[in-house]
Amino acid sequence: MRQVGSVLWPKLRTLQIYGANTGVGKTVVSTLLLKRLKKHLPDYDVRYVKPVSTGPLTEADNRGVLSKTLYQFDEPLSPHIAARTAKEPIDDQSILLRLDEELSSYASGKDGFVVVETAGGVLSPAPSGNTQADFYRPLRLPVSLVGDHKLGGIATTISAWESLHVRGYDVGSVMLFEESRYDNHTYLKDYFADRGILTVSLPPPPAPATSLSDDEKQMSQYYADACTVPALERVITQALEAHTTRLTQLQSLPARAEKTIWHPFMQHTERTERNILAIDSAYGDYFQTYQSLPPSESQTRQRFERESHVLKPAFDGSASWWTQGLGHGNPKLALTAAHAAGRYGHVMFGGAAHEPAVGLAEMLLRNVGNPRLSRVFYTDNGSTGMEVAVKMALKAASKRYGWDAGMERGEGRGDQVRILGLKGSYHGDTMGTMDCSEPSVYNRKVEWYKGKGHWFDFPLVKMKEGKWLVEPPQGMEDVFGPPQEFENLDQVFELPDRGAVAEKYERYLKNELERLAAQGIKFGALIMEPVILGAGGMLFADPLFQHTLVKVVREHAPSLYQTQGPTTEQPDELSWRGIPVVFDEVFTGLYRLGRFSSSSFLQTAPDISVHAKLLTGGLLPLCTTLASESIFDAFLSNDKTDALLHGHSYTAHAVGCDIAKFSLQTMMEMDRGGKWNGFKKQWAIPTTGISGLRGKRATVATALAENWSMWSKDFVTEISYEEKVESLFALGSVLAISMKDPAGSGYTSTAATGLRDQLLAGTDVADSVIHSRVLGNVLYLMASMTTTRETLESIEEVVKAAIK
Amino acid sequence: MRQVGSVLWPKLRTLQIYGANTGVGKTVVSTLLLKRLKKHLPDYDVRYVKPVSTGPLTEADNRGVLSKTLYQFDEPLSPHIAARTAKEPIDDQSILLRLDEELSSYASGKDGFVVVETAGGVLSPAPSGNTQADFYRPLRLPVSLVGDHKLGGIATTISAWESLHVRGYDVGSVMLFEESRYDNHTYLKDYFADRGILTVSLPPPPAPATSLSDDEKQMSQYYADACTVPALERVITQALEAHTTRLTQLQSLPARAEKTIWHPFMQHTERTERNILAIDSAYGDYFQTYQSLPPSESQTRQRFERESHVLKPAFDGSASWWTQGLGHGNPKLALTAAHAAGRYGHVMFGGAAHEPAVGLAEMLLRNVGNPRLSRVFYTDNGSTGMEVAVKMALKAASKRYGWDAGMERGEGRGDQVRILGLKGSYHGDTMGTMDCSEPSVYNRKVEWYKGKGHWFDFPLVKMKEGKWLVEPPQGMEDVFGPPQEFENLDQVFELPDRGAVAEKYERYLKNELERLAAQGIKFGALIMEPVILGAGGMLFADPLFQHTLVKVVREHAPSLYQTQGPTTEQPDELSWRGIPVVFDEVFTGLYRLGRFSSSSFLQTAPDISVHAKLLTGGLLPLCTTLASESIFDAFLSNDKTDALLHGHSYTAHAVGCDIAKFSLQTMMEMDRGGKWNGFKKQWAIPTTGISGLRGKRATVATALAENWSMWSKDFVTEISYEEKVESLFALGSVLAISMKDPAGSGYTSTAATGLRDQLLAGTDVADSVIHSRVLGNVLYLMASMTTTRETLESIEEVVKAAIK
Question: What is the pTM of this model?
Answer without folding.
Answer: 0.95
